[in-house]
Amino acid sequence: MSYSNPSKPKNLFTKTTCPYCGVGCGVLAHTDDYGVVTVTGDTEHPANLGRLCSKGTALGETVYLDERLLYPEILGEQVSWEQALATVAGRFSKIIAAHGADAVALYVSGQLLTEDYYVANKLMKGFVGSSNIDTNSRLCMSSVVAGYKRAFGEDIVPGCYEDLERAKLIVLVGSNTAWCHPVLYQRIVDTKNNNPDLQIVNIDPRKTQTSSVADLHLAIRPGTDSVLFNGLLVWLETAGEHNAMYTRNFTRGMQAALDSAKNSAASIEIVAEKCGLPANDVEAFFRLFARTERTVTAFSQGINQSSSGVDKINSIINCHLYTGRIGRPGMGPFSLTGQPNAMGGREVGGLANQLAAHMEIHNETHRQRVKRFWNSPVIAKTEGLKAVDLFNAIDEGKIKAVWIIASNPIVSLPEADKVRSALEKCELVIVSDCVRETDTVKLAHIRLPATTWGEKDGTITNSERCISRQRSFLQPPGLAKPDWWIVTEVARKMGFTDAFPYTSPVEIFREHARLSGFENENERLFNIDALADITSSQYNALTPIQWPVTRQSPNGTARLLSAARFSTTDKKANFIAIEPRLPANACSTDYPFILNTGRVRDQWHTMTRTGMSPRLSAHTIESYVEIHPDDAHRHAINDFEIVEITNTLGKSIYVRAQFSDKQQPGSIFVPIHWNQQFSSQARVGSLIKAVLDPISGQPEFKHSVAKIRPWHANWYGFLISRHKPALKYASYWARSRGKGFWRYEVAGQVNPEDWSEHARTLLGRVGEQENWIEFYDKARFHYRAARIVNDRLDACIFIYPSNALPPRDWLISLFQKGTITPEERASLLTGTPPADQQDYGRIVCACFNIGEKLITQTIRANSLRTTDEIGQILKAGTNCGSCKPELSEYLKTIWGH
Ligand code: SF4
């Protein structure tokens, strides 16, 4: 099913933005006569200047309608919008009247546009009168908000992307930029290629794809980042690298921070010992930092997702304050946000502990100001419940109604099974989503169909404070509506019509801009007042612009804090004395592994969008655990074997083992994406204990503890089919989408009575039995079968007693063909190509469908030494460039350097 009614005349481009990561790339979207959407990078967008990563490039493949939620539903029955909205408003109002405002909650998302976010926050804090609205951005950047506020008095990102190109030293801490912010990574690599003097230090317990660009990789002991940066602060003092004029005039609290740093990290030897690093490497990093004025320290989830994330951030900021390296080109502490509009959410106060427009709930002046501006009957008095506490309150029955918008907390929150049982018990669960079946939507009493990328219209703000338009170019299908519209209509039905008069996003944006300047008097740097009178046509034509956008700086502001006037009462920045705390979860004999989590190159969050794309699904087809080979041998685990990982709560997941010497012994890594739509049980959220940063409430996703053991099945197999089979007998399964087919990896402990009969039930269709071919060696327990319809491969299944199955890549290539030849048919059940064909291996370059085997063969055959040389022959890496770090790895593996 595809869009037949694009909202734009065909063959015209729409300038919009990518909906995935915080880089916030501009894209040009184009719909052809058949409704097929293609996207290219927008060369005029300052974030990417035309570049896109694999996810952005494949956006066109994700505008599927097949799995969309198209109509409002109550208890599974389709209803009208009128009925759905009236029910939501009525039930919310009743619960508030009976139990108070804090008995209801909203859980929203960094996927929302700023306008959506604004009305949701306004409804809860100004009209319901509760701060029980939190967002999944709590899971990715709330520690940064708290860290910036402690240091600068406001949530301010001082720098911009250009600083990465003007720096002489880039320190990437806890950030696999190559996979998580790929276009920024490409900008860094291009800068490095043009300027070999640029030094890059990568601080990460894992050696990742990002490490390949680094001059120095510090494989730090997990959780010890504050020790390292405290040590750096001490070293800077010893080395005389103190900007005394800056600290004297513009900061306070330096001596306490230094004293505290000396307590934990007095010497290089102590730092090296505590961080598990060679002393020489620590010294090399310190010397580099000390002598390089233009230093950017960029950090991401490896720092934020920690029970001491806020302290880690302040330990980094302390070093920049000490050297005065903030607010000038090529320097500064720089948080790379995870989601496309995490920043927009911060602007409107989408977190439970914020108000709006960078104002504070605990500040009576701010509360009354916002109340006056909104002309609201009430204003939230205290901070609301942060994400994990909010779902705990649902579990305890304190919150009786929750409205989840554009998020999938049953997959993404820690202790995800507890989240599920909380929602199962909850009196009223409302979910607004664009997808018909997610783990969370399944549990909703009321389902509200929301528009999605391509249909949505509004603004987002990326990691460098750049506000960009996200524009619609597709008509919403079915009865799907924008999130701002849904919230607005519910607010009206709750009796707040006058305060929610909106009929379009621009009206909301104007109000948001006005509030940012309302009684501001330079108190808050977040100010876009100059956009408060924007007309509809100006809004439609709005080009990317970095806030603040004021009457004095109408064209935006690239860097902040250059005047060293902070948002604190005395306008000085705060050093924060840091006493490093190690992660609360400690390994034991029974649970010997540190469990780390993160993203893979081609998937996004819980796969509700990227899981639709065949191109993106080809790179990593099932979840896995990266484990050091020594650990694997100690635990009798073989490469590619299915393993069970269990946490101290007794929860388990089942994933494929993947050996990697880039993993530290004692640590394992599992990706965050897989949910129960794509796997039997690979939701790593169920293994994460809800240990939180005490200030930000951000969960520790990088340091859980677990044990691991092989999981043995009676049979293993895979099936590839043009139709989705109804699986039976498979205790383990992982599903991925191909172009015109589904691929399943399966394993089971119970055998069907007759494999031949079972396979036909799974894959066959009545009346077409004559095209069924099969091979069944009962003695060796090898079963293989294929279904061919009109000389076209329709489905195949391979079942073995062990994991030693044939490669899938050649078989998959047959599904791309109209018909198969007699030779291919003859080879089909061996799983290997005929003599004149090749198996090109697992797809590495998703843009040009180039496989691993072809790449390594070509490197060897042509003595290739660079990724550009590979690109010249195979085209791999020449479009989005996301596979370049892997191409570099192949070159290193083959040539040894
Ligand atoms: Fe989208 Fe990739 Fe750009 Fe991130 S880097 S915004 S995922 S195209």
Question: Widest sheet: strand order?
Answer: 5-4-16-15-14-6-7
Q: How would a crystallographer describe the biggest sheet?
A: 7 strands, mixed
Average predicted confidence as pLDDT: 94
Strand-residue proportion: 15-25%
Class from secondary-structure proportions = alpha/beta
Q: Can you give the helix content as a percent range?
A: 25-40%
Ligand roster: iron/sulfur cluster
Radius of gyration (CA) equals 27 Å
**Helix run count:** 30
Could you give a quick summary of the protein structure above?
With 897 residues, the protein is of the alpha/beta class.
What does this protein look like?
With 897 residues, the protein is of the alpha/beta class. It is 31% helix and 19% strand. The protein contains 30 helices and 34 strands. The chain has a 7-stranded mixed sheet with strand order 5-4-16-15-14-6-7, with helices on both faces. The protein has a 6-stranded mixed beta barrel with strand order 21-25-22-24-23-26. β4 (73-74) and β5 form a beta hairpin. The protein is globular and about 80 Å long. The relative contact order is 0.12. The mean pLDDT is 94. The structure holds iron/sulfur cluster. Iron/sulfur cluster binds at residues 18, 20-21, 23-25, 48, 52-53, 55-56, 181-183.
Topology:
Layout: E1 13-17, E2 26-31, E3 37-41, H1 54-57, E4 73-74, E5 77-78, H2 81-99, E6 104-108, H3 114-128, E7 133-135, H4 142-152, H5 162-166, E8 169-173, H6 177-180, H7 182-194, E9 199-203, E10 216-218, H8 225-238, H9 244-250, E11 251-252, H10 254-265, H11 268-275, H12 279-291, E12 295-299, H13 301-304, H14 309-322, E13 332-335, H15 342-348, H16 364-374, H17 387-395, E14 401-405, H18 409-412, H19 416-425, E15 428-433, E16 446-449, E17 458-461, E18 466-470, H20 483-493, H21 505-517, H22 536-540, E19 545-546, E20 573-574, E21 593-598, H23 614-617, E22 624-627, H24 629-634, E23 642-647, E24 652-659, E25 667-671, E26 704-710, E27 715-721, E28 732-738, E29 741-748, H25 755-763, E30 772-777, E31 782-789, E32 792-800, H26 809-814, H27 822-827, E33 843-845, E34 850-851, H28 852-862, H29 867-874, H30 884-895
Parallel strand pairs: 6-7, 6-14, 8-9, 8-12, 9-10, 11-20, 12-13, 14-15, 15-16, 21-25, 22-24
Antiparallel strand pairs: 1-2, 2-3, 4-5, 4-16, 17-18, 18-19, 21-26, 22-25, 23-24, 23-26, 27-29, 27-32, 28-29, 30-31, 31-32, 33-34
This protein binds iron/sulfur cluster.
